[in-house]
Amino acid sequence: MNKYIKLFIAAGLMGSAVGCTDLDVDNKSTYTYDPNPQLTELYTHLRETLGRRYMEAQALSSDEWVGISFDGGYYDDGTYAHACLHNYSPSDASIDWYEKVTAGITKANRKILSLSENNKESICAARAMRAYFHWILIDSYGDAPLLDHIYDKDEVVERQPRAKVAEFIANELEEIIPYLPETVDETTYGTPTKWMAEALLVKLYINWPVYTAADVTAYDAANYQNEKLDKVVAYCDSIIASGKFDLTSGTEKYANAYRAKFYPDNGAQIKDFIYAISYDAVNAGGMQYARPRTWRQANSGVSYYGMSLSKSVGGNFSMTPQISDLFSLEGDLRNDMILGGQVYMFNPETYEKTNVPYVYNGVPVVLTKDITLKVEDEKLNCGADQNGWSQGYKSVMFFLIDVDFKHDRNQSNDLPIFRYADILLTKCEAILRGGKATNGDTPMSLFNQIRSYVHAPLLTADPTLDELLAERGREFFDENWRRNDMIRFGTFESEYGFHKKGFPTARFDKECRVFPIPKSVLDKNPTWKQNAGY
Description:
This protein is an alpha+beta fold. The protein has a domain at about 5-215 and about 225-285 and about 415-510: Serine Threonine Protein Phosphatase 5, Tetratricopeptide repeat (Alpha Horseshoe).
């Protein structure tokens, strides 16, 4: 978050009254001003919820990243490889964040219960957070408990059908939107606004056929039928008509209007952000996205970030060849965040690439697009040498600076959840899929707004769904949306990375569209059944 607007506010802790929501999380906030200070712990709870493990589950199960290992290093009981191969285990660390989500719901329920009835705005803000936490559960785990009240000590919590929870989320958001603030500035940054709730409805409704299918295997992207498409368009139009968001404001300080949105000093000045999580390396930790995406030995000497790094990095995430191929449009600003082939140094002040090659032990570091394993098995072992560390492209999207990283490898880059760019491309998608066009917009005109600001070639006709999915892969790379998109577009069971036919332990079962319920959660809820296929 932008350093000049920070003020640190300690948040209280709240535990849980029922098994599936048993979690305490120590949180702090980084807001200049909180219009609902009694709700601070709800907002800050997201930092832990959407931190390392949630990111791993979303990124590695999609076609964005492969979790490689180095002669045993970073194999970590297979948690990264399992996600890449859709061969999850209920004991995998990368899918064990269920209780963080349910703890957030419990906190929201306690706040709703404690607030005065005349404090409508705060109550509705807490309900917005509760709805978002429920959305995380149904998106990732399918059927979920509907935690709309504080459960008695002996009350049994049961999972409800995914469609029922989706209806609950929709009804909640539709009801509370009129009472949420419309202000968009540093005073509401990181807190629920009308626009945050509408953006969540857009995400819920565009995926309506996925969430309301009879089960996770029943959704068929080739026969996408969605009665909510006009609502998607309507909520997109509301956000667009507000005039409070755009694609480039707040990035003027830097040469690259796309990359600037994700730099360490991003924050409320970025008008593409409808809703974001505020992080600070010292007082609001949890953002560690750069660590696995940084070349394995980058902390030896001066890193390619242009500075020495005080802590070691992982380097165990490599981009799949399929996602790497997307970043090849002529002039596209988004290409500049991808490291492929010869790696060059970056200027630590401007974050721009220089023409100075990056070397390790006197040898230039050259990354290969294709990833070669020593043995084709689930360890995804590339070897612990310069050749092994250099398998696959990397990214500097969430640019790393050592003043942050030395604090337990945390970063101060804020994480966007909903962006204006997503609203434009989702309206484009809704119209392509049969929604009614409005305000003179066409799929091509909406699509080209994105292409224009990143200086990529413009289309001369409406995009196909395949072109739209590819564009979403470029624009929302590494923002935890790719798995969600791939399921909706019907490509989640495709071949990418080492998720390919004939590869040992790679699974293509449709049940893998949701993660298994973590063992720790099942142990506390003995009446629950594991998701099918696990």
